[in-house]
Protein: GTPase HflX
Organism: Rheinheimera baltica
Amino acid sequence: MSDINVIPEQAILVHVNFSQHHTSEDLSELKLLVSSAGVECVQVVTASRSAPDAKFFIGSGKANEVAELVEQTQATVVIFNHSLSPAQTRNLERQCLCRVIDRTTLILDIFAQRARTFEGKLQVELAQLQHLASRLVRGWDSLDRQKGGIGLRGPGETQLETDRRLLRERVKALQTRLAKLEKQREQGRRSRQRAEVPVVSVVGYTNAGKSTLFNRMTHADVYAADQLFATLDPTLRKLKLKGVGEIILADTVGFIRHLPHDLVAAFKSTLQETRDADLQLHVVDVADPRKDNNMQQVAAVLEEIDADQLPQLIVFNKIDLLEQAPRIEYNEYGQPTAVFLSAAKGLGVDLLEQALSQLLSERFIDMVLLLPPHKAAWRARFHQLHCIVSERFDDDGNCELTLKLSESVWQRCIKQSDGVLENYVVSTAVI
C-alpha cells in the first residue's frame, strides 16, 4: 500500500489598488490568509483601477491575462482579495475555466477548517449557507430545466428552486439549534453574574498573540500558531488575581479587515462573551507596521457587536521583536491604560496581572478581622483570594487576619456570608 501525498491547491492571487474613494486591501494579508487555508500561491496579479468593472471586476484585459496564467500554471483556483458579486464570479469562472473565489469565501473556508466544537461547526455552516444563498445560481447552466425524468417529474419545481428550498430549511434548522445553544451560554453567563465573578475578554486582530497570552496566563493548552485564525472556538478559564480572587478569562476569535457580516451574525452568541465582559484586553502586535490600522479594524468590529463602550486595557505584545522592556503606561488618574509585554517570552505578564488587579478593584481596603474558630472556613476562603497580609492566633483559637482586598470582593464576601462577616471587623481603612 503506497502513501498518498496530498498536493495543496495552487492559486493565482488577484489584488486591485483602487483610488482613495475605494478601500484597498492589503496584499500581504491575503497571502497569509491563503497560506492559512493550506493553498499554494503560484502567481500574483495586481492592477490599478478607479472603480470595479461591472462584468469582470478587473476589466476584460486583466481577465484575459489571468485566464492565460491559469492555463500556463495549471492553477486550480483564482482568489480575489476583494468581494465579488455572483455575476462577476460566474463571468470570471467562464473566462478562466476554473474556480474563482473572493476574500469572504476564503475566510469562511478557513473558519470551516478551524472549527472544532459542535457550536463552532454549526455557526460556520450557517455563515456559509447564508453566503451561498445569493450564489446558488452558479451551480446550474439550465436554470429552467426541471428535475427528474419519466415517472419522476414533480409539480414543476426547477432544480434551482428545490435547492433554494432545501437551503432555507437547513438554515432554519441551524438557527433553531444555535438558539438552544445560546440559551445554554446565557445560563452560564447568568450564573457567573450571580457569583459576581469578573469576566475579562481577550480581543484583538488575528495573529496578534491572543491565544499565546491566554495560555501563558491560565496555563491552558489552546492551540496557538503563527497563522491567521489559528483558533476559532472561544475558551474560558479561571484565573486567580492577588487581591481580586477568581476571574474568568475568555479567549475569542481574532478579527480581521472586513470580517464577513454573515460570519459576525452567525457568531453573535459567541461574541456575546466579549459584549458582556467587565473588561477587554485588546492585544496588539506592536511589531506590526499596520498596528494602528489593525486597532481601528478591531474597534469597528467591536462597535458592530455593541461592545465598544466597555473598559479596555491595551496589551502591546511581541516587544521582544523590538527589544523593548516591559512596562505599564498610566493615565492622569493613575489608572493603567497599556501594558507592554511578550507573551511568547513571558516578559511583563506579571505587570499585566498587576494592571488587571488595579482595574478590577477600583479601591482597596486594609482590614483586620477577628474570626472565631467556627468560622475557619472563611480563613481558607481569604487564602484562596490571595488577600491575607498576615495572620495570628490568640489563646482562645481566634484568628486575627490582616487583609488587603478590593471593595467589590469584600462586598461579595459580605453578601455570601449574609452579613455575618461584618460582626468580626476590628478595623478598616480605604486606600
